[in-house]
Amino acid sequence: SIDLWGIEILSYTLMPNHYHILIKTPLGNLSRAMRHINGVYTQRFNKNNETEGQLFKGRYKSIIVDEDSYLIQLVKYIHWNSVKAKLVKNIDDYKWCSHQEYLSDMKDNELVNKSFVLSMLSDLRGNQIKEYTSFIKRDPSKEISDIIEGSKWPVVLGSEEFVNSISRKYSVKKGDKEVPDSYLLLPEIKLIKTTVCEFYRVDASELIKSKRGVFNEPRNVAVFLSRVIRKDTLDTIGKEFFLNRYSSVSSIINRVEALIKSNSGIRQRIEEVKEIVYKSKSQT
Hints:
Layout: H1 2-5, E1 8-14, E2 19-24, H2 30-49, E3 64-65, H3 71-84, H4 99-103, H5 115-121, H6 125-137, H7 142-148, E4 156-157, H8 160-172, H9 189-200, H10 217-230, H11 234-240, H12 246-262, H13 264-282
Parallel strand pairs: 3-4
Antiparallel strand pairs: 1-2
């Protein structure tokens, strides 16, 4: 699976009724790789146990992780999982995880790429295992434990800057099959409206006002950003702003696009509003 799908496994642990796995996907093909991994394991399990049917219930849960601030803490959480579940008292006693491989002097094997993680602990190869041993002895981060053991996982785990960059990426294309619940990365239309009102210092009622020959900038900017950031349909946007015709929504969007090209003032204001929206989203 590793060579076939071009993935890198950084750590894993097998539990009685689930497993955790930390994967790098340079090719952005998580969905296909996971389908293959779960499918092959199910086939072998059924064959060895003379059973049939699905082994895993529902789709896998995943989180996009910022390698700079959270990745190494996730490695620790994954390796500590058996202790937290009271399967063993000591992390060294559980063989169904990649912890022992991290303690080995051998280079990366065919399954786990430990060099990537160890290099985050020390630049000197001779000190890496020592640093890992010291690092892994300390309890896992409470923040990470609360997140993973919570009822609802975040789509992205990382710094504010990282979350913002991912949110921007997925606003280009609404939703992505490689990232379950990626639509949750998109700012809600309510947030866009609130941000526009605060930026222009107007009441929410201004966003539904329309006068012939009058350019209602706050409303038009909110309409435009709903389309650009969220990729909402013209129908959805129309209902939000009490615009009865698709052509009215389309006309507003086209006009704002034209103004962005010719009017540096409105272009700057729109960029400022966008920045506030993304920043506000990352803090929720």
